[in-house]
Amino acid sequence: MKVNKGVAVVGAAETTELGVIPNQSQQQLHADAALNALADAGLTVKDVDGLATAGDRPTDLAYYLGITPKWVDGTAVGGCSFMLHVRHAVAAIMAGHCETVLITHGESGRSGVGRDGFASAPSSLAGQFEMPFGPMGPTSMFTLPVLRYMKDYGMTHEQLAMVAVVQREWASQNPRASQQEPITVDDVLNSKMIAYPFHLLECCLVTDGGGALILTKSERAKDFPQKPVYIIGTGESVETPMISQMQDLTSSRAFTVAGPAAMDEAQISHEDVDHLMVYDAFAHLPIYGLEDLGFCERGEAPSFIWERNTAPGGKLPMNTNGGGLSYMHSGMYGMYAMQESVRQIRGVAPAQVPDVEVSLCLGVGGMFGASGCIVFSSEPML
């Protein structure tokens, strides 16, 4: 028996506000998201006996919310941490360590209220062997793999820009999206150059917000007020904390482990996936995700997106909330991606795709340092 059989999402919500929230600390954003998710599930904090979070310590959050959990997870590997929390929570629930798990995310990414900075410690591997040479965060570090990809596979600037254009189309249907105004390829290419080859509109947003999920056994799922969303496959992996040390700058080893693991566990093929979320901190990430997951052959994802296969009406709807490029990106985007998967399965997304039964959600942590993958379904595994 696979450990992921029999666990469902019964509560899901984001913070009451998204975007710029200067009047709430990061801890308050965690709490706001948690209380919204609990209300969505018809529960209170007294019903929670498992807690997972990243960005802040589980100890702090448990105290703040008044929870004394039986199970705790503080795994922190970047923006996909919450996907790893889901995987670990599934295992914990099935092992009997807890019954109802709350996973929270809160991040004051733009306002910086009650949060630490992003800088790598001088003693870290990146601090010793990359930072002295100038790269200072995603905008400079992510240039290395995307330039190698462009050289090896001939991806054009126009094709890279198309990723942002398509995701803005999805965001234009989402009243909660930070950026909703439609854009063109020319708009992207004429936006400010940030770090070659990335223009401003090919870089993630910087926002405040958060989200939370409630997980419990499938046998209890239909007792809750919302349509349950079942977790049928999970995967996780890490590669390297230094982007310069990727084995192949055109592919993420963490993606190629986490994604297939989740699909194998779910016993699904590519044809079974109705909806796809690929963490898109920058415009090249959906391209890597499509190829590392096996939806496209090497070098074919830019054309696949250019031909509007992932756009509204396309055969593989992807990043339907607008993604980190247009919807939200407070620093760790993985929770927002899972929230959209849940909405699509429930049938309540602003840009709802018809008849979504299976949604695959792939996340990245750091600069291709880690990955988590979750397969959500409208039906439990038999």
How is the topology of this model organized?
Layout: E1 7-14, H1 26-41, E2 50-53, H2 58-65, E3 71-73, H3 81-95, E4 101-108, H4 125-129, H5 138-141, H6 143-153, H7 157-171, H8 185-190, E5 193-195, E6 198-199, E7 208-217, H9 218-221, E8 229-238, H10 253-266, E9 275-278, H11 285-292, H12 301-306, H13 323-326, H14 334-346, E10 358-365, E11 370-377
Parallel strand pairs: 2-3, 2-4, 9-10
Antiparallel strand pairs: 1-7, 1-8, 4-7, 5-6, 8-11, 10-11
Assign the structural class, choosing from mainly alpha, mainly beta, alpha/beta, alpha+beta, or little secondary structure: alpha/beta
Strand order of the largest sheet: 3-2-4-7-1-8-11-10-9
How many helices does DSSP assign? 14
Shape: globular
Classify the helix fraction into a percent range. 25-40%
Number of domains: 1
The string of secondary-structure elements, in order, is EHEHEHEHHHHHEEEHEHEHHHHEE
Spans of at least 5 consecutive residues with low confidence:
none
What name goes with the CATH superfamily?
A: Thiolase/Chalcone synthase
Strand content: 15-25%
What's the CATH C level? Answer: Alpha Beta
Oligomeric nature of the chains? single chain
Biggest sheet statistics = 9 strands, mixed
CATH third-level topology: Peroxisomal Thiolase, Chain A, domain 1
What's the Cα radius of gyration?
19 Å
CATH architecture group name: 3-Layer(aba) Sandwich
Q: Averaging pLDDT over every residue, what do you get?
A: 96
Explain what this protein looks like in three dimensions.
The protein has 382 residues and is α/β, with parallel strands linked by helices. It has a single domain (7-115, 205-377), classed as Peroxisomal Thiolase, Chain A, domain 1 (3-Layer(aba) Sandwich). It is 34% helix and 18% strand. The chain is built from 14 helices and eleven strands. The chain has helices at residues 26-41, 58-65, 81-95, 125-129, 138-141, 143-153, 157-171, 185-190, 218-221, 253-266, 285-292, 301-306, 323-326, 334-346; strands spanning 7-14, 50-53, 71-73, 101-108, 193-195, 198-199, 208-217, 229-238, 275-278, 358-365, 370-377. The strands form two sheets. Strands 3-2-4-7-1-8-11-10-9 form a nine-stranded mixed beta sheet, with helices on both faces. A two-stranded antiparallel ribbon has the order 5-6. Strand 10 and strand 11 (370-377) form a beta hairpin. It is globular, with a radius of gyration of 19 Å. The model has no long low-confidence stretch (mean pLDDT 96).
